[in-house]
Automatic annotation (TrEMBL):
Protein name: NADH-quinone oxidoreductase subunit A
A Gene Ontology molecular function term of the record: NADH dehydrogenase (quinone) (non-electrogenic) activity
Source species: Mobiluncus mulieris ATCC 35239
Compartments (UniProt record): Cell membrane; Membrane
Source organism, top-level taxon: Bacteria
Biological classification of the source: Bacteria, Bacillati, Actinomycetota, Actinomycetes, Actinomycetales
Assigned EC number: 7.1.1.-
Oligomeric form and interacting partners: NDH-1 is composed of 14 different subunits. Subunits NuoA, H, J, K, L, M, N constitute the membrane sector of the complex.
Enzyme class: translocase
Protein family per UniProt: Belongs to the complex I subunit 3 family.
Membrane topology, record value: Multi-pass membrane protein
HAMAP family: NDH1_NuoA
Length: 119
């Protein structure tokens, strides 16, 4: 139980610093709201209700976001596996090979569809 006391103290200190920073900013920060500051920001363009085809994002935007998520998750799982590689044995190696193969499928699909070309 004593191991968790240090963690609880650190969590309480982080929570205190976060709340104190927000409180000091709210109390001491300038507050001069106007119409421009309260308006939604949309990439520097004036927001209009019906923009037609211009309101749609290209599919490459979503593909890039999905690729980032997929490969970010891959790194999150590969690093701890690499650290404990020797203790894993054959089962750990086979499980990671299956994991990498499953992640290779979307990579090959995007590569075949020329998703990495930015032209």
């Amino acid at each position: 139980m004593n191991l968790y006391i240090a963690l609880l103290i650190m969590l309480a200190a982080a929570l205190f610093v976060a709340i104190a920073g927000m409180a000091v900013g709210a109390i001491m920060g300038p507050s001069r709201p106007d119409k421009v500051k309260n308006a939604n920001y949309e990439c520097g363009c004036d927001p209009t209700p019906n923009r037609g085809n211009q309101a749609r994002f290209p599919v490459k935007y979503y593909l890039t976001a999905m690729m980032f998520i997929i490969f970010d998750i891959e790194v999150v799982f590969l690093y701890p596996w690499a650290v404990s590689f020797m203790e894993q044995g054959k089962f750990g190696m086979l499980a990671m090979m299956l994991f990498v193969e499953l992640l290779a499928v979307p990579f090959i699909y995007v590569w075949a569809r020329r998703g990495f070309d930015w032209n």
